[in-house]
Design a protein that fits this description.
single chain; alpha+beta; Phage tail protein beta-alpha-beta fold; Ribosomal Protein S8, Chain: A, domain 1; four-stranded mixed beta sheet; three-stranded antiparallel beta sheet; 31% strand
């Protein structure tokens, strides 16, 4: 009798453990964040201090509590729901405002090959980076300029003078920068974080300009009393130009524009003359400008 009772007890305990393991997991109602929850400008923010780890569920729960976002997973990202994310912050602490929480969460997700898409719409989706393009928000020129830097967007850039081959070569700078580029005959479709897409679109706009005509060199006799230095200063102010430079340092692309006169002039050693290199169209204007100095 004692053995039978013991066997029934053991069987009951085994069934209880099996039921506990297989039953649905209900929400805890609170997120176990290792960050200090603070108030910044009247809204909930986080103060992140030191180094550590946080579970994906906890950081997303903390994000939802602070911002009111509805958060979901793509089918592929759901497999990584139990992932642990690493964070590093100054020992003195780093305070994040409410508006920065979604972008910071996306940064943490990036370490595990994931990202946060659509958070500016009130409904954020956790997705694998390679599938983020399928959830990105389609935007136009004006919307792109106003979009949150960390939001994933799709933007269609059109060309007028730029060839698809030249565009493809320029956009190869963004390989490894979490941006998808699909080229076509009259433009390219760019998908990625808004900050990256804006930079790429700016690069394409700078490149999409009429090809400069070939320069010609001519010598001009300066009017009596006009010095070469004065004539050169005049031409430099009348014909300003811009040169665009692109740098790619570890997938971080920067586009800078510096000013450079499109007409180059030199004083001649023989007589009061000016040697000018310019396009045929600009030479017509150069002659008129120098004649006006009489």
């Amino acid at each position: 009798m004692t053995r039978l009772f013991a066997a029934v007890l053991v069987l009951g305990l085994a069934l209880s453990l099996t039921w506990a393991q297989e039953r649905p997991t209900f929400g805890r109602g609170t997120a176990n964040l290792p960050f200090e929850v603070v108030t910044v400008d009247g809204k909930t923010g986080w103060k992140v201090t030191g180094r550590g780890t946080v579970s994906l569920d906890d950081v997303l729960g903390g994000l939802a509590n602070a911002t009111g976002l509805r958060v979901s997973f793509s089918a592929d990202a759901m497999e990584a729901r139990r992932t642990t994310l690493s964070y590093i912050a100054p020992d003195t602490g780093m305070t994040l405002s409410n508006a920065e929480l979604a972008a910071y969460t996306g940064e943490l997700l990036g370490g595990q090959g994931m990202t946060l898409v659509g958070f500016t719409t009130g409904s954020a989706k956790v997705a694998r980076i390679e599938e983020a393009a399928s959830f990105a928000i389609m935007v136009g020129e004006a919307e792109l300029g106003a979009m949150h830097p960390a939001e994933w967007v799709t933007f269609s850039a059109s060309f007028v003078h730029l060839s698809p081959r030249a565009a493809s070569s320029a956009l190869s700078l963004y390989r490894g920068a979490d941006m998808t580029v699909v080229g076509h005959e009259s433009g390219a479709v760019l998908t990625g974080r808004a900050e990256r897409v804006r930079t790429a679109a700016r690069l394409l706009r700078e490149m999409d300009k009429p090809a400069a005509a070939g320069q010609m060199v001519r010598t001009y006799d300066l009017p009596d009393g006009v010095k070469a230095d004065s004539a050169r200063a005049l031409l430099g102010s009348l014909f300003p130009g811009e040169v665009t430079e692109v740098q790619n340092i570890e997938t971080r692309v920067t586009v800078t524009t510096r000013h450079q006169p499109r007409v180059t002039s030199y004083g001649s050693l023989a007589g009061n003359r000016l040697i000018v290199a310019a396009s045929p169209q600009d030479h017509t204007l150069v002659a008129q400008a120098l004649a006006s100095m009489k």
